[in-house]
Amino acid sequence: MATAGTLFKNLFGRREESGTAALEFALGLPFMALLFVGMVDLGYLMYQATQLNSAVEAGAFYVLKNKWIPSTGATPIVNAVSQTGTVTGTPTASCFYGCPGATGIVSQAGVCGSGSSTPTCSNGYAPGQYVKIDARLSTTTLIDSGIFGFFGKSLVLPNPLTATTTIRSE
Fold first, then answer.
1. What is the rounded CA–CA span in Å between residue 158 and residue 163?
2. 72 belongs to a structural domain
3. Each residue of 120-152: b (16+ CB within 10 Å) or e?
4. Which H or E run includes 77?
5. Domain of 156, in residue numbers
6. Are 117 and 97 in contact (CB under 8 A)?
7. For residue 28, what pLDDT is reported?
8. CA-based nearest residue to 94, from 40, 12, 169, 161
9. What global pTM score does this model have?
10. Is residue 116 part of a domain?
11. Mean pLDDT computed over every residue of the chain
12. Peptide bond preceding 127 in cis form (omega within 30 of 0)
């Protein structure tokens, strides 16, 4: 016959705990997997952004070494950017005369390579010849591609990635 003490012990005492760790693991695994995939995704996106910036930098190095050549135009600069194998689409390069201003480079009239431009900037200096290089990289992320579709489109990731640099070429 069960006494009150054994009933109390059975109802409120120590219970069997086998399987608790497996249950906690099963409940926590989806959250840990989502966190892990998100970190990998963000890391890969940062890697792609670094590669794209390096591609644009290759074009800037070309401009530093060879200047803007009117006869070839943007073609060799675009080739230097494209040879990195990172860029999707066609990178662009354009030459313009400009004057340094408080908010950046202010474009001036003139044809690159001809030596003809606006005579002076507002600060009294001669305008410089600048080359602007743009590149794009289309990205696909695990979270945005539908593997974790329950996020919908509320997670905004940059697509495509873009990189731009402006460098003085004379």
1. 12
2. yes
3. ebeeeeebbbbbbbbbbbebebebbeeebeeee
4. helix 75-82
5. 18-168
6. yes
7. 92
8. 169
9. 0.71
10. yes
11. 78
12. no
Contact assessment for residue 38 and residue 45, using Cβ atoms and an 8 Å cutoff: no
Asked if residue 10 belongs to a domain, the reply is no
Collapsing DSSP states into helix, strand and coil, what is residue 109? coil
Name the residue among 156, 123, 152, 124 with its Cα closest to residue 139: 156
Contact yes or no for 165/131 (Cβ under 8 A): no
Three-class DSSP category at 11: helix
Residue type, 101: G
What does the chain come to in residues?
170
- Strand ranges (E), the chain: 92-101, 104-108, 110-111, 116-117, 128-137, 161-168
In a domain, 91, yes or no: yes
Write out the two tokens for 60.
């800037």
For the chain, what is the domain count? 1
Residue range 35-66, pLDDT digits in tens: 888 888 888 888 888 888 988 998 899 888 88
Strands (E), 11-148: 92-101, 104-108, 110-111, 116-117, 128-137
As a whole number of angstroms, the distance between CA 97 and CA 105 comes to 9
